Amino acid sequence: RPGPALAGDIGDRVILATWPNYHDAANFDLFRDQTGAAVQVNVFGSNEEMLAKLQAGGSGWDLFVPTNYTITTYVEADLIEPLDLSKLPNYDAAAFEARFAEAGTVGGKLYAVPKNWGTTGMAWDSGKAKAPFTSWKEFFDVTRTDFSGRTIVHDYQLTTIGSALKYFGYSFNSVDPAELAEAEKLLIEVKPHLFAITSDYQPPMRNGDAWLTMCWTGEGKQLNRDLPEIQFALGKEGGEIWSDYYAIPKNAPHRDAAYALLNFLIDPQVNAREALAHGFPVADARVNAQLPAELLNDPILHPAAELLNALEFGAAATLTDPNRAELMARFKSA
Amino acid sequence: MAISQRMARAILLAPAGLWYAVLLVLPLIVVLVYSFGERGAAGGYAPAFTLAQYANLGARWTALQNTLLLAPAGTLAALLIAYPLAYFLALRVTARWRTTLLVLVIVPFWTSILIRSYAWIFLLGGRGIPQLLSDLGLGDLRLINTPFAVLVGIVYGYLPLMVFPIYVSLEKLDRRLLEAAGDLGAPPWRSFVQITLPLSLPGVATGSMLVFILLMGEYLIPQMLGGGKVFFVGNALVDLFLQSRNWAFGSALAVTLVAIMLVTVTLYMRFLKRIGAARDDVGLM
Amino acid sequence: MRLYAFVVYAFLYLPIGIIALFSFSAGRNASQMQGFSTQWYGRALSNPFVLDALQTSALIALSSAVLASIVGTLAALALSGMKGRLRTLFDALIYIAVMIPGIVIGIATLIALVTVFDAVNPWLEGATGWRLSMGAGSLIAAHGLFTMSLVIILVRARIEGMDRALLEASADLGAGPLATFRQVTLPLLAPAILAGFLLSFTFSFDDFIIAFFVAGSETTLPIYIFSSIRRGVTPEINAIGTMVMAVSLLMLVIAQITLRRGEKPNPQ
Amino acid sequence: MTEATGHHTVGASESIAEFVNTSKRFGAVLAADSLNLRIRKGEFLSFLGPSGCGKTTALRMLAGFETPTEGTILIDGRELASEPAYRRPVNMVFQHYALFPHMTVAENVAYGLRQRRPKLPRAEIAGRVAKALDTVRLGDFGPRRIWQMSGGQQQRVALARAIVNEPKILLLDEPMAALDAKLRAEMQMELLSLQRSLGITFILVTHDQQEALSMSDRICIMGKGRIMQIGTPRELYDTPANRYVADFVGRANILPARVRATTGGRAEVELADGLRVEVTAPFVAPAGAAVEVAIRPEALRLALAPEPGVPAIAARVTHMTFYGEHIEYLLAHPVLGALQVMLPRQAERALPGADVGVMLHVLWDAGAGLILGQD
Amino acid sequence: MTEATGHHTVGASESIAEFVNTSKRFGAVLAADSLNLRIRKGEFLSFLGPSGCGKTTALRMLAGFETPTEGTILIDGRELASEPAYRRPVNMVFQHYALFPHMTVAENVAYGLRQRRPKLPRAEIAGRVAKALDTVRLGDFGPRRIWQMSGGQQQRVALARAIVNEPKILLLDEPMAALDAKLRAEMQMELLSLQRSLGITFILVTHDQQEALSMSDRICIMGKGRIMQIGTPRELYDTPANRYVADFVGRANILPARVRATTGGRAEVELADGLRVEVTAPFVAPAGAAVEVAIRPEALRLALAPEPGVPAIAARVTHMTFYGEHIEYLLAHPVLGALQVMLPRQAERALPGADVGVMLHVLWDAGAGLILGQD
Ligand SMILES: Nc1ncnc2c1ncn2[C@@H]1O[C@H](COP(=O)(O)OP(=O)(O)OP(=O)(O)O)[C@@H](O)[C@H]1O
Ligand SMILES: Nc1ncnc2c1ncn2[C@@H]1O[C@H](COP(=O)(O)OP(=O)(O)OP(=O)(O)O)[C@@H](O)[C@H]1O
Ligand SMILES: [Mg+2]
Ligand SMILES: [Mg+2]
What we know:
Distance between the termini of chain C: 23 Å
Helix content of chain D: 10-25%
Keywords (chain C): Cell membrane, Membrane, Transmembrane, Transmembrane helix, Transport
Bound molecules: adenosine-5'-triphosphate, magnesium ion
Structural class of chain D: alpha+beta
Shape of chain C: globular
Largest sheet of chain D: 6 strands, mixed
Order of helices and strands of chain C: HHHHHHHHHHH
Largest sheet of chain C: none
CATH topology of chain C: MetI-like fold
Protein name (chain C): Polyamine ABC transporter, permease protein PotC-2
Order of helices and strands of chain D: EEEHEEEHHHEHEHEEHHEEEEEEEEEE
CATH topology of the largest domain in chain D: Rossmann fold
CATH class of the largest domain in chain D: Alpha Beta
Subcellular location (chain C): Cell membrane
Oligomer: heteropentamer
CATH superfamily of the largest domain in chain D: P-loop containing nucleotide triphosphate hydrolases
CATH architecture of the largest domain in chain D: 3-Layer(aba) Sandwich
Number of strands of chain C: 0
Domain ABC transmembrane type-1 (chain C): 54-255
Number of domains of chain D: 2
Number of strands of chain D: 20
Family (chain C): Belongs to the binding-protein-dependent transport system permease family. CysTW subfamily.
Number of helices of chain C: 11
């Protein structure tokens, strides 16, 4: 089912802000061939950064990829606009698993369309570990002992603070000052034992400098695929499950092209090619129908249900909460 | 005649003046105003008049401390490594090779500092130099993500900036002065200390100042080689604007950094003038 | 001494050698050598984002360097031999512009321009349908601030070192003020302007931190590389770096050869 | 070098330029103090004077680089005091040549011609440049770069660059100061023969009296912004108007004396030691007046014994300096002080045994020396 | 300036330094070609020669900045060819002074004393510096910065900086080349009296023959790396060993001639035009030999008519140049070519009407001129 011929004039370009290694470049070429609009891609590393850029205004983006918990904030700040479904014939609400799609709707209006989902767990070098990791408690405890100087935490408040909160059994999303204070104490205590605070954890894991890291599903899969001794697990206390969406900012300079591109990218065939290229799980049943079974049955990408159930989606409050932001900054500059 | 000359001056200066007004004066004023404000509810800036941001500067004390420690240390290290090289190039190399060798000092500059620092991540990482050392039986050394790694990156990144001014001032050195010193009974090392070194001070001053200024605002090298653990004011600033989105506090920190620099650099210039090193080329930067 | 120099050069070139070496890796990891291949060069050259970023960077660097050279030279001409309050003011501005860290420039420009744009845009859009936004323009302007100051410093030094008798000689031989400027002043300033231009270009081309804040939706090469580095690098990045360096080396050699032809071996 | 050609400045009153009461003040410094000077067509005129006396200032006012504070300047009869330099029919050879470093030799020389409007045809420019380079014997050097030329060659380029424009007046501001002695002598010779062959008026600024004496038709001696004397080299040398000129041009023993009588251009004066000598008197000095008498070292003679009828001063030799073709004696006299006497090498033979410490007689021929006027 | 004091270099054979077969090669250039020279204690010796002849090289070998390629150098009897400069008991005044710009005048002068080990007491250094500055008449200038000093003052500082060390030999490499004529003459005078009062051996490099002639006890004429002649100024001037020296020291008319007879230091030679003249013959030249005869312009005389018994060349005046105390005539002879004659100013009176174009008689007194040896 090719997208409707967009005979209308959508201009010659469209700007997409997204995460790295999250698309298949061939699809953009195809889009350009079909519509005449070239896709310019801006790459980002964190939701905070996306928000900061949009808040600063003049980002110039037409389409971007926020994570579930940020969408309400964008809506409240009037930074994104409700989607005009008449321009998205490829969107089929029924095809999406609800929990990965619901964050896209705010106040009854659809603001964002799901792209991919995943979890945040930990990856470790099984050759160095005495036993497999199963919890965030172990993660932080071993860091202070056997793995001192070998652990990586994300340069990302949501997962780093969230995981520290999980150590104490608190909610991943807590903004309670007392609970946060405990988390901060833990983080600052751990800091001297860390190898790094970075979201670029693959290279040190691969070359053996680091033995343990917080890790996103797709990348855990990649590491495990290439180096079988690196294993991936979710904390049994819980942790993060996330879903990324497509959204269109207010004042998008090329709005028509943005819709065209979005519609094109959620075409199941196109989307399947995307998934094959980057490997992250997809929430769209139409797409999964086209993917090989081994991918769908992979324990890293699709963990057991009881593990999944313990996970939490990020909460909107964590994004804007000044204390969490400041805590992270204090931790890094400590 | 006189009036038309003034007119001509005004016309020539207008573009630069406008540029400075819009991109230097205005931003600085905005930053100053913001530094007395508050963080907006969803981040950003909310108007207010409070000194709270300045009162909170202590929360970034470590970053300030790192900067104020590592910037001079990096400058000094770069100086100590650059001087002998500049000396070698200016006084010990035949003219035929000099240009080539000089160009070879700048060439690394033409590769993105990002990529070069990335190479250092490998070199200082477990598979790089530490591996080599441990293969040689020199023990298990961890380099990457330490202040030492940041220092190496700094020295590496800014070495050419230090070599050049020193080279220039050494090259200008009248060799007959060294002969004169020898003639008057000074053995080589003493004529180095008494003649060469003092006369190359302007270059040393220029290079140091250049490197120091750049280091004070450094972000990339600590970010890449410090593994997020070695934090400079620059990193704190980026964090404040892009992660915590606390523009007011960020502005206050920026104002503080600028103030520190104005004071230190001005004092440094004064000092140079006093010891007479700021003769000619210091003014260049 | 020789040995020392050798060690320092090794220090300077070790990382570059590593970059070049790994760019020929057949594997996917940028910091590992796995087999030999030139595929990453092919990939980089056919990667539209890389090419776009390269083009954007080159364009921005070129524009800001050209603008800075012109505006800076004009200002230097006006400032040389000038006295009084205006001179003091400009001296202070130049001093501050050169001294303020790039990161502060980036941040300050960002928030100032955003504030201004927010204030101006509603009116502007109503009047012309245009909006101001962060992008190539603001980046060129922000880079220009520093590089223009650099040009002013370089060109002014050159003007002040210039032999005034040459201008008198030109007048003596019948050339009016404009003709003298075109035939004598400008050619004599050319090396300083060129140096300023090259410095400006290099600075702008390699700048990350200002662009990071001010570039709006534009992706420059450093921004592209930075965001790539954040989430796992492929040897493509090494290939890009190696190519950029090779091209600059080539330009350097060409420049040397053309400058050498007939020009005095630079006394500095 | 041909002194005689100085005479062929026919119609001596045909003036090409004129300073009329011209003054130039720089702040508190009066660099030129009401200059009055008529420059003759085709002559070789030198401004001679010590450093800072205003020579360059005078020249620069003529060239148009400075505007007179008072008075005016005429060139070819036209009042040009406020005409900018680039419209004046004069050209200058600068002290350090001021050659354009970014142009070749030929381009430097062509520069003035290329400024002409309407434009001159290329071929004509090329032809005239070639001719000018030939004139200064640099025919093959056109494509060279300036920094490939030696000091003397650069000087010739500067000369060619000026003369190719066929200016009415060629101004030269110490053009040979930077050259070494040998090269300087050579260039002086060439400059002079060039002037003779081109017939252009040359105005040379110098502080080297030898240079001025040997090259000029007339010399204008300057001091403290003022013109002290104008005249031919011989006039200046033989009858300096005052002590300043006597001292500056050549060397002179200057002695206080008292006039006894003046008759027909001669005067009898009495020196401090009572000796009476007969000197030239350019003006009538009243008997009994205290004057200064100047006598050139080479106008005095030395002898072992006094000659009858010639006034002689007995003095002791303190220094003897050998200069090759002549020998300089310094003698001390208890009353008159130090006396300089310059002997031709040949005359030495007549003084066997004359050495430091020996008493000799300084002979003063009648008419040698003259009475000086006030400054 | 006292020529006579040249004589007091007593014990002429007491040598302080010696070049023994010393050569220096720079790549293909033989800058010094087996120099053999004995420098006497207390003398004022000059190296004179054109640019590039190796003067500086010789001096630098003595100072220790260059090592001879062959041969050796003795200072005070010790072989010092490989001793580094900073251990030699000689000091140098550099051409552009090479003063340390970051030190005051006093610090510059103290520099050499401060290098002594064991260290000298501060007070002694200060005292000697003050004395040296007094010697060069800069007593009050100690605290000044170098760039606050004029050219001539800088020269004096350089001198003080060297002499304060009381070197055995003071080397001076064209110390006055950068000064203007008047200042140069003054400094020459001071330098000489300084040398006389200190009694130190001075070795001066210069390419100015006037300077060498008037200052030196002995002059060493150099050419193409070789020593062409060594002798007192008078020896060199009166009996140049060869054409090179005759041409370089003073001016000379050099004419081809054929020897007719030699007797007791005199020779009769026949010039190209058949004229026979009697010249000095420093060596016996075989009759019939073709030789070159040199005669100084001031040794010739000019007359309106030939004098009986004096050989005379009739020639036409082509140029006359007025130099103040003397006048130079250039004359053309159909066979002998151009002749230079220098007349004292007084002799002009005996030549009424002598002007360009007039035919005059050049008189050649017996014994004037001499036969030159081969280079
Ligand atoms: N532009 C100027 N501003 C102020 N004073 C000046 C200027 N030009 C010349 N003077 C002063 O005017 C006086 C005469 O200067 P001028 O250059 O004419 O002297 P000069 O005779 O050429 O000397 P020299 O032989 O040193 O070149 C000097 O006292 C000088 O300092
Ligand atoms: N360091 C050197 N390397 C190569 N050649 C040299 C060096 N120093 C001198 N020469 C050459 O040796 C020769 C003699 O040079 P030297 O400097 O002794 O001459 P000079 O008589 O002092 O000349 P000048 O009067 O120009 O100073 C010259 O041909 C010069 O080019
Ligand atoms: Mg002058
Ligand atoms: Mg020399």
